[in-house]
Amino acid sequence: MNKKTVTALKILTIIFFILMLLSFSSANDDKDNVFVKKIVSIQEDGCVNITEDFNYTLRLHPNIYRNIQLDDNQEISNISIETPGFYNNYNISNTSNGVQIHVSLYSDAEKTKPVVNQSANVIYHYKKTRAITMYNDVAEFKYDAWDMDSGVVRMTTYIQLPKNHENVEFWTNPSYYVSSNIWITHNTLQTRFRSIEANKTAQQILIIPKSQFNTTINANVVNIDAKNSIEDNQEKYEDNLNYNYMVTYITCVLSIILLLTPLGIYYKYNRQPKTSNNKIIQKIPYNDSPLFINNIIHGNGNYVTIDGFYATVVDLVDKKYIEFIDDTTFKINNKESHLLDYEIDILNFFINQKNKNQVIIDKIDEVSFNKFISKWMKKSYESIYRNKMDFFQNTSQKLYKIYSIITSIYVIGALYYVLSLQPDVPTINWAFRATIILIPVIILTAVLSYKVPRQWTNYGIKYYNNWKNFELYLTDYNLIKQYPPDMNQINKYIIYSIALGDIRTFNRNMELYFKYNTMENTEYGKYIKLYSILSSKFKNI
Fold it and tell me: Membrane-crossing residues (predicted)?
């Protein structure tokens, strides 16, 4: 994995935590509800008188709409409006599920100057009938403290009973909106709410002794015992609420773990091996083919280079399969069956280029060579791939692929399940954000499963380090002077230095060494000249 990939993963992690810290806010473009106070007075006859004091911050226009939802058989009457400090027009219309009150505010008596860009209080008064349900054992009152499409910063409700709060039970759903619940008088329940987001609801439920009412004419009458059922339903609601909290917390934790998992895979499997430079290796560390060394060391196991071709040709010369007649002319000796396929391919190419059983390097067709070398590099890489199983393993690629599949399934399942949770809990937003950020991570890891470099094995790291230390020896004159190469293997030194891409530096070091030391009869000069001729002929490859 390159630095850009690591950076991308780190950026995604940072974005995730930023999103987790940010909260989504939903504000109506026309008005904000800063503070709301509601007084709900339950009468002995079953009617409910309601006063709602809304503090609005008007923005673009002076129009305010208050929708009051009504359940089956409920009725609303005695509607009136107050707007302290302002003049108003209002009208009332029926909707499919209740009543809509449209209020327009003005700052002058002629009602020509609309109120915009300032705060205003609007007080609604109305009476509800059949808001109380009378059962055989208790009376139940349900009040939608908040059911609007806009949010509210602060809200306080006061529910006044006909008599006192003895044997009265109450709940607010969902309870996480409640800041405090307290009986401030013998019959008045004060409930303070935290901020409520747009399109969220808060409902208050009270079980009241029937003895507080003197008639059922204004109530819904249901001839069953309901107290135990109401209490059981409320207990189930709280259990569901706690379960949803648990699910969303688990989702957040799992999403964070999944977000960090690719980084863990990288740090465990994808960091390049550290080359140990404290060990001088002056002898050829392994007797592997020069093409294999070119691929493993010079090509990092991912490709072969033109130097691998040059080294293989010189190696064929060293093994007497190619015999030079002069500096630029050679002939092909009989092929042996134990040659590797990519070596045979080189010989076959030269055979096709021969004239009167001789190959003249200067007359090799460059177009033909270009076509050959492109195919040869690919084929030779594939032919040595299976020999590298001890050097590399694809653990990280497999893990990235498995991760992308599992995380994709997780994201789909988590989003579907979390967004379907009822009742709603605040941590759903956190779980949603923690999950949605995994989508770009899935895409990135799916790409990495094909692009990321393979992991070195312990043997591969040792092998790599030994060759890199040998390469340091080849390119350091002081080391060559102190630890001269074995002249009986000088041809192999040349071949491997070509494969490693260090032949020019090695040759300079050796020329300097030979300047002060005599050299026995070797093929050194011929091999260096052959490399120079080949690299000069095909320098544009």
Answer: 246-267, 399-418, 430-450
pLDDT tens, residue by residue, 90-146 = 999 999 999 999 999 999 999 999 999 999 999 999 999 999 999 999 999 999 999
Is the predicted pLDDT of residue 424 greater than 70, yes or no?
A: yes
Residue 419 falls inside a structural domain? no
Dihedral (C-alpha) 70, 72, 77, 83: value to the nearest 10 degrees?
0
Range of the domain at 138: 31-225
Q: Give the number of domains in the chain.
A: 2
Mean pLDDT (the chain, rounded): 88
At which of 172, 201, 225 does a domain end?
Answer: 225
Kind plus residue range of the DSSP H or E element containing 450? helix 438-451
Identify whether 326 is part of a domain: yes
Q: Do 303 and 200 sit in the same domain of this protein?
A: no
The model's confidence at residue 265, banded by pLDDT at 50, 70 and 90, is confident
Q: Are 263 and 10 within 8 A, CB to CB? A: yes
- Gap between the Cα atoms of 248 and 122, Å rounded: 38
Q: Tell me whether residue 516 is exposed, middle or buried, using C-beta atoms within 10 angstroms of its C-beta: 0 to 12, 13 to 18, 19 or more.
A: exposed
Distance CA 93, CA 87 (A): 20
Which residues share a beta bridge with 207? 140, 169
Question: Which position has the token pair 């390159």?
Answer: 2
**How high is the pLDDT of residue 279?**
77
**pLDDT tens digits, residue range 162-197?**
999 999 999 999 999 999 999 999 999 999 999 998
218, 337: one domain: no
Angle 493-297-388 from CA coordinates, rounded to 5°: 110
Sign, CA torsion 531/535/537/541? positive
Give how far the C-alpha of residue 509 lies from the chain's centroid of Cα atoms, to the nearest Å. Answer: 52
In the numeric block, which tokens belong to residue 481?
């002077």
Q: Mean pLDDT across the stretch 417-424?
A: 91
Q: Output phi, psi for 45, to 5 deg.
A: -85, 5
Examine the fold and report which residue of 225, 240, 257 is the final residue of a domain before the chain moves on.
Answer: 225
Residues 190 and 89 in one domain: yes
Residues 215 and 296 in one domain: no
Q: Is 307 within a domain?
A: yes
Dihedral angle sign, alpha carbons of residues 478, 481, 487, 491: positive
* Percentage of the residues of the chain whose pLDDT score is greater than 90: 60
The distance from CA 196 to its chain's CA centroid, rounded to whole angstroms, is 30
Neighbouring CB atoms inside 10 A of 287's CB total 6
245 is a domain residue: no
Residue 359 tokens read as 């190959």
Q: Both tokens of residue 135? A: 């059962």
- Residue the block writes with tokens 């089956």: 72
